[in-house]
Amino acid sequence: MSLALDSAAQDLLFREARTANTFTDEPVTDEQVQAIYDLVKYGPTAFNQTPLRITLVRSPEARERLVKHMAEGNQAKTASAPLVAILSADNEFHEELPTLFPHFPAAKDVFFSERPVREQAATVNASLQAGYFILGIRAAGLAAGPMTGVDFAGLQKEFLDDDHTPLMVINIGHAGENAWFPRSPRLAYDEVVTTV
């Protein structure tokens, strides 16, 4: 059985896509980021919750503050990427549920009145949205360099508040020279899928 998506799109989003490690200096515009978000916001989440929050790091001063929290191997590429996004989970996402889940507005209080429940839901669903965001970057013809090699506590203190949990940092731009490491192996279908 073939996929509905044509082969070139499959390559762009998955087979040929890898984490970019270098970028050109061509800027990434706010309009490009808006187009990416306007596509990926339709990805499904539980209760249509939308806990992903995106902090775009553009100014040199903010970039300097960010780089100091990156693992040593991620510092140079984060310093030189045209745009960097901090992705976080909003643990107070439930406040938007009456609007986002209008056929059951009471879900806000019935399911998400407890902070630990919200934190778990926010992390799971914002992580889903982060995956959509990476695919959206690729769909826009840009390269993504998602990283979790970061001091998360320092990142939160520097850029976020106690209601937002940092998930990852993504360098965004057009792939530069020698941007890609060789493709690493993947597990085979029968190593991952079990039928019961």
Describe the largest sheet. Answer: 4 strands, antiparallel
Order of helices and strands: HHEHHEHHHEHEH
Task: Give the strand content.
Answer: 5-15%
Query: What's the helix count?
Result: 9
Counting copies of identical and different chains, the oligomeric state is single chain
Q: Span between N and C termini?
A: 22 Å
Over the alpha carbons, how many angstroms does the gyration radius reach? 18 Å
Counting helices, strands and paired strands, the structural category is alpha+beta
Helicity, as a percent range: 40-55%
Number of strands: 4
Please tell me what the overall shape is: globular
Parts with pLDDT < 50 across at least 5 consecutive residues: none
- Give me the side-by-side strand order of the main sheet: 1-2-4-3
Mean pLDDT comes to 95
